[in-house]
């Protein structure tokens, strides 16, 4: 990608980087499921497939019955999706708290409803978490995101 930057104009680079980055980073999924079709064209709500069950800090991946309502006999089985965003177990992360604090899906996952494949396009490493916490005046104390050492 760096080599490209030398030869293309700025606008082309912006388009190329997004495009190349996406197709390189998106892992092959067991079924060619597309958010662009389902969340974009069909306008299905995120919560239909990612319900953030109460109680729970995760968004969860869809159960076979959800796909089965529209694709009976085709995708109504347990599918082993390749995970995209994951934080290590020594990091505290709660979707619920972030959504309650009015952060949007797009801020952390990009324009998912326009993507035919999901790639890790936003930086949610420690640096990425810290940047937003600084911007939104949330704490950047180590113990905010990591449990204190015993
Ligand atoms: C509300 C109905 C609905 C739900 C729920 C739904 N789909 Fe779809 N899906 C569609 C429609 C409509 C199309 C477009 C069909 C076409 O263009 O041929 C489609 C297309 C697809 C395609 C590409 C074309 C094909 O038929 O192979 C795949 C793969 C797919 N869906 C998988 C899934 C999976 C996996 C789930 C569950 C996570 C799911 N869908 C949930 C309605 C739905
Ligand atoms: C019809 C079901 C369906 C809908 C609606 C849907 N998703 Fe998904 N989502 C899936 C499936 C299936 C996967 C796993 C396959 C993949 O990564 O593409 C997934 C994966 C994801 C992931 C990556 C999870 C990981 O592995 O870390 C994110 C982020 C995501 N969805 C966000 C959204 C957002 C935001 C919306 C609403 C704009 C949405 N989804 C709507 C079915 C759905
Ligand atoms: C503040 C950033 C942030 C926001 C806002 C956010 N997510 Fe996430 N999302 C993450 C992180 C970080 C992970 C990895 C979590 C883990 O490993 O426990 C993740 C994981 C996921 C997953 C994979 C399953 C899971 O729960 O681990 C899905 C699906 C998902 N997000 C969907 C959504 C949807 C839908 C929204 C909006 C309603 C949303 N996210 C809002 C940061 C965010
Ligand atoms: C898009 C901006 C954004 C990103 C990215 C983000 N956060 Fe946050 N985070 C917030 C905001 C805003 C709050 C709420 C602060 C408050 O209530 O004072 C928050 C709160 C928290 C809390 C406190 C939750 C509680 O118990 O009240 C933790 C822990 C946290 N974030 C961890 C993380 C981690 C880990 C990541 C990266 C994986 C991350 N955040 C990424 C904006 C973000
Ligand atoms: C806003 C949330 C947040 C805060 C605040 C935070 N971290 Fe992290 N930290 C993370 C996340 C997320 C990771 C996982 C990084 C990844 O996935 O690359 C991490 C990873 C780490 C690691 C492992 C590094 C590695 O390369 O695996 C160490 C050590 C660490 N943090 C120490 C600290 C210290 C010391 C502080 C205070 C100065 C701190 N963290 C503050 C979110 C945070």
What does this structure look like?
- It is a single chain.
- This protein has one domain.
- It is an all-alpha fold and 150 residues long.
- It has helices spanning 2-7, 10-25, 35-41, 46-49, 64-68, 95-100, 105-109, 126-135, 142-145.
- The protein is elongated.
- It binds heme C (5 copies).
- One heme C is lined by residues 87-88, 91, 125-126, 129-130, 133, 140, 142, 144-146.
Measured on Cα atoms, how large is the radius of gyration? Answer: 18 Å
Task: Please give the largest β-sheet.
Answer: none
Structural class: mainly alpha
- Give the low-confidence spans: 3-24
- The number of helical runs is 9
Distance between the termini: 44 Å
Bound molecules: heme C
Fraction of helical residues: 40-55%
β content, as a range?
under 5%
* Count of DSSP strands: 0
Write the layout of secondary structure elements.
Blueprint: H1 2-7, H2 10-25, H3 35-41, H4 46-49, H5 64-68, H6 95-100, H7 105-109, H8 126-135, H9 142-145
One heme C is lined by residues 87-88, 91, 125-126, 129-130, 133, 140, 142, 144-146.
Outline:
With 150 residues, this protein is an all-alpha fold. The protein has 9 helices and no strands.
Features of the shown structure:
150 residues, mainly alpha, binds heme C
């Amino acid at each position: 990608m760096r080599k490209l930057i030398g030869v293309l104009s700025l606008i082309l680079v912006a388009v190329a980087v997004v495009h190349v980055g996406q197709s390189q980073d998106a892992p092959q999924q067991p079924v060619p499921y597309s958010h662009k079709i389902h969340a974009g064209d069909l306008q299905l709500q995120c919560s239909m497939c990612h319900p953030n069950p109460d109680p729970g800090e995760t968004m969860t991946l869809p159960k076979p019955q959800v796909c089965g309502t529209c694709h009976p006999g085709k995708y109504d089985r347990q599918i082993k999706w390749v995970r995209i965003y994951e934080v290590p177990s020594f990091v505290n992360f709660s979707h619920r708290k972030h959504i309650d604090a009015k952060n949007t899906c797009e801020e952390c996952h990009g324009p998912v409803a326009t993507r035919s494949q999901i790639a890790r396009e936003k930086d949610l490493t420690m640096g990425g978490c810290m940047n937003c916490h600084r911007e939104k005046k949330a704490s950047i104390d180590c113990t905010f995101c990591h449990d204190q050492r015993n």
